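Input record (one chain):
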Amino acid sequence: MEAKKTIKLKKDEFTIKEYIKNSLGKGKISKIRIEYTPVGEKVIISTNKPGLIIGRGGEKINELTRNLKKKFELENPHVEIDEIMEAEFDSQIIADEIALTLERLGPMKFKVIAYRTLQRIMGAGALGAEIKLSGKLPGSRAKQWRFAQGYLKKVGDSAKVVDKAQAKSQTKPGTVGVKVSILSPYAKLFDKIEINEEFVSKMKENSEKIENQIKLKKPKIKIKNKLK
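The corresponding structure, as predicted from the sequence alone:
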């Protein structure tokens, strides 16, 4: 019975999240978390555009709260906004932006879109990034394109810190899949090797001093040629 309740709860949460994403629009939301408190349900929306979601005087938030209470029978839903300060490190926002740009400009300029986005991510200070586009780009047959730069962990425990997301772009030739992976500069890598430049410089100075001392102590051997 507990398993059935958990499955039903997860299904309901997924339905609520999809409704919020569709109602607010693609490209505005990164993640949605639902927390259950004694007072009621807390819905936390992570976004880099809080003004568009809140609306003038909180109109959109109030409307969303009323719809959640009415459609999903939530007792006391409370919507909160979690602002994302550095959107370049959020894979879902980047994936949605690529998908929207492909729909607006068309799939013919997919290389320009991918390279510009990759340059913006790395320019913000990311350790590594990868963008994968799959679909009819630009030929009649579906193909996958990969754009990557920097360091990106693929296996091991450190791969869990890589932020991954995907989105869909509905273009005229067909659907284009977008996958984005970003390794933030704030990620904790346990296998990262850091070089202490001060220690290296001191070691070089010591080695040079030792070499000079050896040269001074080394005896000079004179060879005399005796002519008969």
